[in-house]
Predict the structure.
Amino acid sequence: MPTPYAYFKKQIVPLAEAKIGIMTHAFNYGTAVFEGIRGNWNEEEEEIYLFRVKEHYARLRKSCRIMRIDFPYSDEELRSLTTKVVEISGYREDIYIRPLAYKSSEALGVRLHDLEDDFLIFVQPFGPYLDIEKGARCCTSSWRRVEDTGIPARAKVTGIYANSALAKTEAQLNGFDEAIMLDERGHISEGSGENIFVIENGKLITPPPSSNILVGITRDTIMLLARLELGVEIVERDIDRSEVYVADECFMTGTAAHVTPVVELDHRPIGDGRMGPITARLSQLYFDVIRGKNPKYAHWCLPCYSKVKA
Ligand SMILES: Cc1ncc(COP(=O)(O)O)c(C=O)c1O
């Protein structure tokens, strides 16, 4: 039976033994930054491929700079620690890896300075987050996306996820699958844990980083695949809420959500209310790439188990 392990306080330990004290600064004040990395199971090869590990840790470094968290790990150390935690946990299914750098001092007082920092990684089995076939029924959230002048959304700060949680719960309790948040100017920003794309006249349109989005790695993957493999033009610009209502297609992207079609917004079906043709082609391409089935993009996929088998 697979058992989840963690990297915690500079050691690899069973997840059940990795506990923090109740006074930990990050727990009290939301002063941690994190990543979500997918490990995608490839049944034929009996392999887990970690997707775009380098890019996830590059984003974590940026988040640490914004939040003044000391992060003294090299790319090679991070790669090795991450694959070790996965290897020893032994899952044979899709997983989710959570690296988290945090203010670890057990101290009262809201601030970022004069505190100790630490870093941990844990792993969990994790199937699809939303229905990637049927798509998501979404609502426009009454909660606005937190602005760069409040907490910078380009940093994946734990504290920001109170904003996402308010939106997600409101959406689900109102019978929707996911919330789409507007920025303070009233333009589309993103989902509670996903970036958004609309397709109009064959063009792929998505809000720019200045719309207070987390600049997603899946977003970048899809933009690259759309341009290089399908020859689709990409436009980064503001999107109005009503523009989504009349779009030909709409989908969300994220490490958890993969590529999830948005089939309805505020009770209005988008397109014919099902996954659209460009979304379907992108989704097919994306799933082959993340499971290590497309040699052209093998450099994005880090195998975890082949070393053990060898
Ligand atoms: C708020 C938010 N936006 C967008 C994303 C998508 O980012 P990525 O594709 O890097 O997972 C996530 C997930 O990490 C998220 O939490």
In short: The longest strand covers residues 95-103. DSSP finds eight helices and 17 strands in the chain.
